[in-house]
Structures are given as structure tokens and as C-alpha cells.
Amino acid sequence: MPVIIRFSNGSGCAVVHDGWSDVRGMATRFDLGPEGATDLIAMNLSEFFTPMPETF
């Protein structure tokens, strides 16, 4: 099963140096062949996307 991993910074700006403290991300794509693909996304945020789990 081929896997592609991509690391990124949260700003999306190619000229921002890696030492700048912002959100970091890692995207992992698993190629499942004829069935398609699935993605796993991880980010280092100090907070969750929504204030309450019920609104997620």
C-alpha cells in the first residue's frame, strides 16, 4: 500500500521560515488501490476546532 506524507506550516506561506511558531500539520494519504484513498490529518493546535464537543 503506497503512502504519501506531507508536512506543512499553518500559514501556507512558502517564505515563512520553519522556526516561526505557528500551527504545524501532517497529512498522510493511504492509496487503497481500486477502492480509492483515505487521508489522515494531524495538526498541533492548542485548542479544539469547536468550543463544545456537541458542536463538532
What tags apply to this protein structure?
mainly beta, three-stranded antiparallel sheet, flat, 39% strand, 56 residues
How would you describe what is shown here?
With 56 residues, this protein is mainly β. It has a domain at 1-11 and 24-44. It has no helices and three strands. It has strands spanning 3-9, 24-31, 37-43. The chain has a three-stranded antiparallel beta sheet, with no helix packed on it. Strand 2 (24-31) and strand 3 (37-43) form a beta hairpin. The relative contact order is 0.25. The mean pLDDT is 81.
**Mind summarizing the main beta sheet?**
3 strands, antiparallel
Helix content: under 10%
Secondary structural class: mainly beta
The unreliable regions are none
Estimated radius of gyration: 15 Å
**Assembly category:** single chain
Number of strands: 3
Query: Strand content of the residues, in percent?
Result: 35-45%
Q: Give the N-terminus to C-terminus distance in angstroms.
A: 31 Å
Count of helix runs: 0
- Net shape: flat
Helix and strand sequence: EEE
Neighbour order of strands in the largest sheet = 1-2-3
Mean pLDDT: 81
